[in-house]
Amino acid sequence: MAKAEENVYTLASLREHLIRQEDTIIYGLIERAKFPSNSNTYDDKYAQIPGFSGSLVEFVVKNAEDVQAKAGRYTNPKEHPFFPENLPPSNVPSYPFSQFLHPGPASININKSIWKMYFQDLLPLLATSGDDGNYAQTAAADLSLLQAISSRIHYGKFVAEVKFRDAPQDYEPLIRAKDREGVMKLLTFTDVEETVRKRVEKKATVFGQEVSLDSDNDGNGKRKFDPTVASRLYKNWMIPLTKEIEVEYLLRRLD
Amino acid sequence: MAKAEENVYTLASLREHLIRQEDTIIYGLIERAKFPSNSNTYDDKYAQIPGFSGSLVEFVVKNAEDVQAKAGRYTNPKEHPFFPENLPPSNVPSYPFSQFLHPGPASININKSIWKMYFQDLLPLLATSGDDGNYAQTAAADLSLLQAISSRIHYGKFVAEVKFRDAPQDYEPLIRAKDREGVMKLLTFTDVEETVRKRVEKKATVFGQEVSLDSDNDGNGKRKFDPTVASRLYKNWMIPLTKEIEVEYLLRRLD
Which residues form the Chorismate mutase domain (chains A, B) (predicted)? Predict the structure, then answer.
């Protein structure tokens, strides 16, 4: 089932998946916003973990990735680790994931940019100031949200491959000319981006509301987070980073 | 802030927290339902992990708990590991979590029952049959949901402590007489349970809907999971297990 589905990627099937990923990202935003900023989670000097040097969030993400690598996560070409160095091999029998991408640019990983954006730009908008001592839980919430954002952005490789296959005659001259701006222009649809941004904000409003049995209160009461954070995340960072992936992928598509 | 809050537990403040935990559990249900059953995740013989004997989900949960233990998760009396044996110590400075519970029964941990319920009862209702190869991601979704369910059920200890402090004259004779049924009767409010069940189903309907910019489609389209699974989870297992915790706690409250 999965294999057949993956072999017939179309813009429509990818779009459906991207829309579902929005929900995962919004749940992740809400769950991280449940905790205050908990700055000790991000302080290199706070924890003293034998054999590890770095912040608690680095410790939790790096170790979670090691465990998930052993459980086969990164054998799926849709998954990208934040700490790819020295990742242990998979210990599960190999699964026939579709090899849809062009081999060279399939390895593009911009998680370093995503990591920086997450901690410098997103987190200060999302988490209210405070400290409740739940640093491990906070780091686990960061891990889930980082993985959801990374997965969504790296999906750009699949989108780029489909766009290329749909119109190689339009892309090939630009790629050969290394015309980065031309490629960017060809894959940019401002009205689609605006639709995504609006839909994400609406979803954040619906999923972030406090639901009670008294219907009159729904949507009017307290919110679990500011829904404009979700649309700003998409507008300012996720859509630009996705397009960056698409351009990088396409520029290497004929290698 | 956190400390002051924890020192003034009341039924109202606990109730607010329990209502927020419903949302976390529903997001967790939706995120697990995103994957098919992926039965290899639960097969003791599927993965060959050096130094580990068990299923992938056991591997992922046990290792995640080890990492989170080092990051201090289980120093919070609200957190309960599924694999408490040989858990490593915390490597973070101790945080002044409120010591609100009575020392003896504070250590009650019924995660073995929760684990059994999750895999035997809940998962077959939640996950559609199929295999997409994403076993590590599936186990990570199980981990988040198991932790959310466990946290909610073990909150029963805090509820029991508040109920005891509010009416020791009602509980003490029953506790001294080891009158399990009497204690159960005293803390059972059928109308409250029914309200919880209804609210959970409504939340599952709202959070599980597919939201689009075309408002007419909202709530009428495809759903991400069957919202009655959430209410059945509460009715058949979460509420009974929470009351089991409350009774166990109270029976040891005068030790």
Answer: 135-246
